[in-house]
Amino acid sequence: MSMLERWDPFRDLTSIQNELSRLFGRTFVGGEQLGSGMGGTWVPPLDMFERNDKFVVAVELPGIEPTDVEVSVEDSTLTIKGHRDFVYEETSEESFRRIERRYGAFSRTLALPSTADVEKVEASFDKGILTIEVPKREEAKPRKITVRAT
């Protein structure tokens, strides 16, 4: 008789991440060497949700100036690029006890739904949160249908 094993949806993702980390010769989760967060790429966290009339993307970008962020749309692909400078240039690496914040260039690319109106994208920046609003095309917005009696 075989034993049932509980399915863990993250087990495969962790396995893939570990394999990629081994392949590239560095670990991205835990065990970072001092200073490894000072350069290269990093991935800012984001939320994407849908409202009746638009899609909204909120990206956490603390410590970044709006002028250091570029938002673009090509076809139905939204791209967010930018960089966060290392602000402690005058401090030697040996002085740090811990570096957990990531610095350097970042890039996020999202596929927008086919119902998105990519000609009317708007972006705003407030308190370290970049908010991108992508309206839905008129034909994609929900409509109320009146039911007639016959």
Structure characterization notes:
The chain has one helix at 9-24, and strands spanning 41-42, 46-50, 54-60, 69-74, 77-84, 104-111, 122-126, 129-135. With 150 residues, the protein is mostly beta strands.
Order of helices and strands: HEEEEEEEE
Overall structural class, as computed from helix and strand content, comes to: mainly beta
Radius of gyration: 21 Å
Percent of residues in helices comes to 10-25%
The major β-sheet equals: 4 strands, mixed
Q: What characteristic shape results from the CA principal axes?
A: flat
The number of helical elements comes to: 1
Rounded mean pLDDT score = 81
Strand order across the biggest sheet? 1-6-5-4
Distance between the termini: 62 Å
Kindly estimate the percentage of residues that lie in beta strands according to DSSP.
25-35%
How many β-strand stretches? 8
Spans of 5+ residues with little confidence (pLDDT < 50)?
Answer: 26-39
